[in-house]
Amino acid sequence: MNPGILYIVPTPIGNLADMTQRAQQVLAEVSAIAAEDTRHSRVLLDHYGIQTPMFALHEHNERQKAAALVKRLEGGDSIALISDAGTPLISDPGFPLVRACRAAGVQVVALPGPSAVITALSASGLPTDRFLYAGFLPAKQQARLTALTELLDEPATLVFYEAPRRIVDTLTAVVEVFGAERDVVVAREITKQFETYLVGTASEVLAQVQADPNQQRGEMVLIIAGAVRAADAIPAPALQLLATLSKELAPKKAAKIVAGHYGLRANELYRIGLEQA
Ligand code: SAM
Question: Which CATH superfamily is domain 116-224 in?
Fold first, then answer.
């Protein structure tokens, strides 16, 4: 008998139509669906007329169940893993099972699909070339300040999930740690009726959220621009070369050459080049 496959199947993060054909097909064809909350996922499966049996796999039983599920997969059953919304394992259950499958040599196939982190980041207008997804910040104030302080000099764009009841306190902490001028985006209720992107400096976005109770409701992703390396951290000869090349070449081209020559980030040189022009 051929061994089964564990499929990781993303589901919509608000808009039921965001279900790929392949996701529907896999859910309809596997032997069973491991769902974070079977009652919650029933709505989705009924919407698509999928009758595959479901069982619960959540943070409280996933360690204990992993070995038996690996046996079932080895025995030939394919299983699809879904969570309440978005991509399983991304701040959702599934890691112990995938790890156990990898250790046992069971094939794991992930389908691409909705995830709030990627959706929010792609529309944020903040740099997407490098990002650090850090899940949920700690709920306690001191631990949250410590977690943010550890990321103060991180050059990658920072992405967090956040609970609506904590967004004001968290943005207040962001202003305290990163300063009022750091660029921030709060992406709220993505793919749903009241989808909103609040874009501005940390203090501007905090003021918008404080002024409007609706902005303190629903699901949200907090994105913080990475630390910008100051121009004076770039070697003077690199800046000189950039200035010289910028007179003859398009800003992008000049930035690329200097970046390659000095091992620097082209994005930042491009920005400086535009400022110099
Ligand atoms: N696995 C999911 C994913 O791939 O996005 C995330 C699960 S995590 C338990 C739930 C958190 O994701 C929410 O508290 C919120 O921060 C974020 N989130 C999920 N759906 C969202 C949406 N439609 N708009 C904004 N944020 C969302």
Answer: Tetrapyrrole methylase, C-terminal domain (3.30.950.10)
Contact 4, 78 (CB under 8 A): yes
CA of 240 to the centre of ligand 1 (A): 45
Q: What is the pLDDT of residues 38-50, one digit of tens each?
A: 999 999 999 999 9
Reply yes or no on domain 5-110 having CATH 3.40.1010.10.
yes
This prediction's pTM: 0.85
What's the gap in Å between 179 CA and the centre of ligand 1? 26
SS3 state at 107: strand
| Ligand 1 environment, Cβ below 6 A | 13-14, 83, 85-87, 90-92, 115-117, 161-163, 187-192, 219-221
What torsion, rounded to 10 degrees, do the Cα atoms 172, 177, 183, 188 define? -40
Helices 266-276 and 251-262, packing angle to 10 deg: 130
Pairing of strands 107-110, 32-35: unpaired
pLDDT in tens, 161-209: 999 999 999 999 999 999 999 999 999 999 999 999 999 999 999 999 9
Question: Distance (Å, rounded) from C-alpha 119 to C-alpha 10?
Answer: 13
Q: Ligand 1 mean position to 167 CA, how many Å?
A: 14
Nearest CA to ligand 1 atom 23: 190
Nearest residue (by CA) to ligand 1, atom 25, is 220
Q: Give the number of the atom of ligand 1 that is nearest the alpha carbon of residue 160.
A: 16
161 Cα: distance to centroid of ligand 1 (angstroms)? 7
